[in-house]
Amino acid sequence: MLHDLHIVPQATTILFCDNKSALHLAVNPVFHERRKHIEIDCHMVREKVHGVLCLLPINTKSQAADICTKSLISKLFLHLLSKMSLVDLYAPS
Q1: Claim to verify: residue 45 and residue 8 sit in the same structural domain
Q2: Which pick of 32, 35, 38, 52 has the fewest CB atoms within 10 Å?
Q3: Splitting the chain (93 residues) into consecutive groups of 10 residues, what average pLDDT does each group show?
Q4: Among positive and negative, which fits the CA dihedral 26, 30, 33, 36?
């Protein structure tokens, strides 16, 4: 996609993942039992891991993407919100 936008990445892109099975599948092409129904695009991602992408493990409580995809308790929601450096535009100044 970056190539189509004429953007050349300057460094390896880091992806944080909180799923141990996904990390194992990404680096081990011989792990057969769980990849029967994986689409072609997932195999392409696995091929890019050694050059363009770098997958790193992250604790599930630190996964900032969860704020957009899960219902979280308020303490965890506010913690992830602070990590994203978002501000309330309507807060009194």
Answers
A1: yes
A2: 32
A3: 76 80 71 56 63 79 84 89 81 82
A4: positive
Burial of 77 per CB tally in 10 Å (0-12, 13-18, 19+):
middle
Q: Do residues 3 and 44 share a domain?
A: yes
45 and 4 both lie in a single domain? yes
pTM above 0.70, yes or no: no
Residues 65, 15: Cα–Cα separation, whole Å = 11
Minimal CA–CA distance to 21: which of 13, 12, 39, 33?
33
